[in-house]
Design brief:
The chain is an alpha+beta fold. The chain has one domain (33-172): Roll (Pnp Oxidase, Chain A). It contains 5 helices and 12 strands. It has a 7-stranded antiparallel beta sheet. It has a 3-stranded antiparallel beta sheet with strand order 1-11-12, with no helix packed on it. A two-stranded antiparallel ribbon has the order 7-8. The radius of gyration is 18 Å and the shape is globular. The structure holds nicotinamide-adenine-dinucleotide and the ligand Cc1cc2c(cc1C)N(C[C@H](O)[C@H](O)[C@H](O)COP(=O)(O)O)c1[nH]c(=O)[nH]c(=O)c1N2. Nicotinamide-adenine-dinucleotide (NAD) binds at residues 23, 26-27, 50-51, 65, 67, 99, 167. Its EC number is 1.5.1.42. It is an enzyme of class 1 (oxidoreductase). Belongs to the non-flavoprotein flavin reductase family. RutF subfamily.
């Protein structure tokens, strides 16, 4: 158990976690890699995201964190459709294409796409694609959190997974 003095020291510690320390710590969390797409009145866009997670299954909902300074931000803000395409193990080139400063037509030219129920682009060879409509948006710091209600799912059970860990790509084969 901590003494009164130790507790006092913990409670009065200055905030030591600067941006770089936070990023270094986050680089130790393995994450699936997704190309998140949209289409609609705002136009077509897509970006690479690891900040994606399951929120609840009733209704089936994911969240996606999007930096408000990203070039795709305005487009996502004007559309309600979102497709979260989780990349298969052979798709690291697509992650780089959608994660860099590349023209939008060039990004989409790098793969084959279909149209989802919501109108968002579905990546044909993705490990899994979640077609969604945005049910809620909220801002935290530099990012917007998009809550995305899943309206349909398409998956390829035989594909392996692309994992981002320690600032690099790793490949997980299925069973
Ligand atoms: N959530 C995000 O916005 C996010 C996540 C991963 C990567 N990225 C971007 O991709 C590029 C390469 O990233 P990297 O992983 O090779 O090295 P990095 O040192 O920039 O990031 C390490 C880890 O920190 C977290 N992170 C990075 N930037 C963030 C941000 N702006 N907001 C919240 N978390 C953030 C992520 O978990 C990332 O994997 C960078 O430009 C980075 O900003 C952004
Ligand atoms: C592996 C990896 C993971 C992420 C990213 C990049 C990469 C390489 N990026 C950054 C995002 O993809 C990038 O800002 C845009 O695609 C390119 O930016 P511009 O469109 O040029 O602004 C990113 N951005 C974001 O807002 N949320 C996220 O979760 C992630 N995750």
């Amino acid at each position: 158990m901590k003494s009164q003095q130790q507790l006092h020291e913990v409670l009065t510690m200055p905030p030591l976690v600067d941006k770089q320390s936070f990023r270094n710590a986050m680089s130790t969390l393995a994450a699936a890699v997704n190309v998140v797409t949209t289409d609609g009145p705002g136009g077509r866009a897509g970006f690479t995201a690891t900040a994606v997670c399951s929120v609840c299954d009733e209704p089936p909902t994911l969240l996606v964190c999007l930096n408000r300074s990203a070039s795709v931000y305005d487009t996502f803000n004007r559309n309600d459709s979102v497709c979260v395409n989780t990349l298969a193990d052979h798709q690291s080139d697509l992650s780089n294409l959608f994660g860099g400063k590349t023209d939008m037509d060039q990004r989409f030219a790098g793969a084959q796409w279909s149209k989802a129920v919501t109108g968002a682009p579905v990546l044909d060879e993705a490990l899994v694609s979640f077609d969604c409509t945005v049910s809620k948006r909220t801002s935290v710091g530099t990012h917007d959190i998009l809550f995305c209600e899943v309206v349909s799912v398409r998956q390829h059970d035989d594909a392996g997974s692309l994992v981002y860990f320690d600032r690099g790509y790793h490949h997980l084969k299925g069973q």
